[in-house]
Design goal:
Layout (H helix, E strand, L loop, with lengths): L1 H14 L5 H14 L2 H8 L9 H15 L6 H8 L2
Amino acid sequence: MEAKAKERLHQLVDQIPEGEVHAAERYLEYLAEHGDPFIRKLMNAPYDDEPATEEEEAGVREAWADYKAGRVQTLDEVKGELGL
C-alpha cells in the first residue's frame, strides 16, 4: 500500500503548478522532519477492510440519533467536566 501512496505522491508532485513548488517542498520537508508521530502512524496504518459488525453498526446508528437529537456536548463542556 505504501508503494502505491508514494507513487501517487510522485504523480501529484509532477502536477504542482510552478508557483507552488517551493511551498509544497517546505510542507513535505516539515512532514518528514516534524510531522506528528501519531498522525504518521495513522497515515501508515493498513487499510481496514473487515466488514463492520452489527454491534458496531448499532453504535453508529445510536451516535447519529444522539447527534440529531442534540444529545451532544462540546469539547469545552467535556474539558470542563474533566477539570482540564
